[in-house]
Amino acid sequence: xxxxxxxxxxxxxxxxxxxxxxxxxxxxxxxxxxxxxxxxxxxxxxxxxxxxxxxxxxxxxxxxxxxxxxxxxxxxxxxxxxxxxxxxxxxxxxxxxxxxxxxxxxxxxxxxxxxxxxxxxxxxxxxxxxxxxxxxxxxxxxxxxxxxxxxxxxxxxxxxxxxxxxxxxxxxxxxxxxxxxxxxxxxxxxxxxxxxxxxxxxxxxxxxxxxxxxxxxxxxxxxxxxxxxxxxxxxxxxxxxxxxxxxxxxxxxxxxxxxxxxxxxxxxxxxxxxxxxx
Length: 278
Known about the structure:
Blueprint: E1 2-6, E2 13-18, E3 21-24, H1 39-48, E4 73-77, H2 81-86, E5 96-100, E6 105-106, E7 112-114, E8 121-122, E9 125-131, H3 140-145, E10 147-154, E11 157-158, H4 159-163, E12 179-180, E13 185-187, E14 198-203, E15 206-212, H5 220-227, E16 238-240, E17 260-265, E18 270-277
Parallel strand pairs: 4-16, 6-12, 7-18
Antiparallel strand pairs: 1-2, 1-13, 2-3, 4-5, 8-11, 9-10, 9-16, 10-13, 14-15, 14-17, 17-18
């Protein structure tokens, strides 16, 4: 079961993709957020799909961010050994956590808006997880069970703001459209295995990132377990699990207006964004 938002920006409707068909779930919820990701609500949704109207011409629709109004977006840095090495940073012995503004999320195919004073705009494909329960100080099993689903994120980063100004990484991660999310949330079930998914990202059809989730230093379950010892999580929160090697920072090659970024992860669909200077 896949959860989506479809429709024009600002007027998106919640939908469910099940058995290859898009269903309008507006009678179930106004948007996929918060309690919608709990086990109870997902079970209710699954039992209701047959009552929803089918959405025609699904392939031609615009899709919005897969999660609406997450309470927080927590990110993990340097979670692939080769990315730490290309960034000339030490391989961490625990997840490195930082955050993005919740106002940075955008649709998976919406333009990336490059601020006028941005100098070093970078791409970062990541596996994102969506939390489905309240957790704080969980056991390892509770942390694993707290993951409701998975989706693609592009952790767009302005490296000059992130690394060349005083302060924390948050500044370089949080501008509007700096977190394309989706096209859907794949709800966790026994048929979906997140342990060895291929992640690929192209810039202007040149393959820049090509890795697998099996090469993560810390698995999604370990990340949630370790971070939840310090940070309370609630349903609908989003956790970005880190990017592999191949980012622009490594070669000082950055995005410019007109560039096209395309990203895909096995089973989670594809994103495509055009960079637009504002």
